């Protein structure tokens, strides 16, 4: 199985001298194509820094990041921008939709920003994949929070990225809506891995063991280091592992 993302001895330090803070310490980790991985750890463990470096939004102090086989360290800023635009999708806690645009116009936005004329069929397919094919002409204020986050996912999917990075994607949603969104994300990965279309790979940061249990595996960070992982997670198993990490700290 190929890796959608690979981190090799990744370190990230902010500041210098006595004020230096090391957020990541020699982290080596792979995210195989066709998998859904949750990244967890205590506050300050390096989760967000790992996501930003893995997605090419921040440059590591040392080590390498490879996305879809491309070494980011060898790219210019313009090349990085193109790679992020074409091969990487992003979903965050805030939906970041344009309120004056319809759902389909929001989804088409990455294509327009890339100077490409959006194919209406491609845009509609992205909305259909997230269960919103009947909401294409609705604007964000006319949609529920869960529906808005689905539009954000469709927007991330429209370029057919190699990987989708999600940072606390359910943080602004109620429990029932969160479960609906997570079932959809898991289904997209499973369908993509099975050759039935959908999304290839998801890397998601979360603090919630219930949310993490929708992933194929969970990787755990503490003090900027990789301290373990868990396959086929359950909420209880994830919570127990987090408690063990906290006790060890």
From TrEMBL:
Protein name: ABC transporter ATP-binding protein
Record Pfam families: ABC_tran
GO molecular function: ATP binding; ATP hydrolysis activity; transmembrane transporter activity
Organism ancestry: Bacteria, Bacillati, Actinomycetota, Actinomycetes, Micromonosporales
Gene3D superfamilies: P-loop containing nucleotide triphosphate hydrolases
Key words, A-Z: ATP-binding, Nucleotide-binding, Transport
Alphabetical list of InterPro entries matching this protein: AAA+_ATPase, ABC_transporter-like_ATP-bd, ABC_transporter-like_CS, ABC_transpr_LolD-like, MacB-like_ATP-bd, P-loop_NTPase
Cellular component per GO, a single term: membrane protein complex
Source organism of the structure: Dactylosporangium siamense
ABC transporter domain mapped to chain residues: 5-248
Keyword ATP-binding in annotation: yes
């Amino acid at each position: 199985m190929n890796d959608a993302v690979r981190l090799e001895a990744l370190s990230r330090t902010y500041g210098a001298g006595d004020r230096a803070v090391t957020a990541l310490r020699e982290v080596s980790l792979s995210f195989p194509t066709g998998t859904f991985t949750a990244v967890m750890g205590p506050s300050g463990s390096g989760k967000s820094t790992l996501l930003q470096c893995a997605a090419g939004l921040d440059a590591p102090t040392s080590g390498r990041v490879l996305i879809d086989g491309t070494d980011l360290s060898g790219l210019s800023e313009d090349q990085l921008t193109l790679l992020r635009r074409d091969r990487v999708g992003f979903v965050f806690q805030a939906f970041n939709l344009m309120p004056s645009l319809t759902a389909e116009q929001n989804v088409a936005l990455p294509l327009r920003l890339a100077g490409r004329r959006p194919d209406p069929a491609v845009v509609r397919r992205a909305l259909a994949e997230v269960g919103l094919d009947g909401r294409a002409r609705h604007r964000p204020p006319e949609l529920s929070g869960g529906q808005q986050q689905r539009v954000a996912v469709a927007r991330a999917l429209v370029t057919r990225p190699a990987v989708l990075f999600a940072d606390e994607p359910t943080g602004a949603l109620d429990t029932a809506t969160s479960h609906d969104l997570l079932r959809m994300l898991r289904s997209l990965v499973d369908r993509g891995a099975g050759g039935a279309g959908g999304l290839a790979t998801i890397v998601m940061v979360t603090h919630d063991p219930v949310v993490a249990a929708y992933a194929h595996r969970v990787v755990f960070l503490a003090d900027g280091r990789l301290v373990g992982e868990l396959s086929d997670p359950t909420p209880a198993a994830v919570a127990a592992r987090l408690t063990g990490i906290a006790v060890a700290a």
